[in-house]
Design goal:
- The chain has about 90 residues and is mostly helical.
- It contains 3 helices and no strands.
Length: about 90
C-alpha cells in the first residue's frame, strides 16, 4: 500500500475513533439527564474540566517550534490609533 493511502487511512481511523468517543460521551450525558442525575453530571463535568486544565498545564509549550522570521507587518493598530505610515498622527476632521 502506498504511503499516501496509509496516511489517509490513519486519518480516517482517528476521525472514526474521535466520533465514537463523542457519541459515547453524548450518550452518557443524555442518559444522566434522562434519569435526572444532574448532580452526578455536575461532578463529572467538574472532573473533566479539572483534567483538561491539568493537561494544558503540563503541556510542553516551551518545546514548540520557533520561527526566526519576524512577525508580518500589520497596520491594524496604527489605523485604529490614527497614526500614518510615517509615525505621525493623522488629523481628524471634526
Amino acid at each position: 500500500m502506498p504511503p499516501k493511502n496509509q496516511a489517509a487511512n490513519a486519518r480516517t481511523r482517528r476521525r472514526l475513533v474521535t466520533l465514537a468517543w463523542s457519541a459515547v460521551v453524548a450518550g452518557i450525558v443524555i442518559t444522566l439527564i434522562y434519569k435526572e442525575q444532574v448532580a452526578l453530571l455536575y461532578v463529572l463535568a467538574t472532573a473533566a474540566v479539572t483534567v483538561l486544565l491539568v493537561v494544558v498545564a503540563m503541556a510542553d509549550l516551551g518545546g514548540a517550534r520557533r520561527t526566526t522570521e519576524p512577525a508580518p507587518f500589520d497596520d491594524a493598530a496604527a489605523v485604529a490609533d490614527g497614526v500614518t505610515a510615517g509615525g505621525q498622527r493623522a488629523r481628524r476632521r471634526a
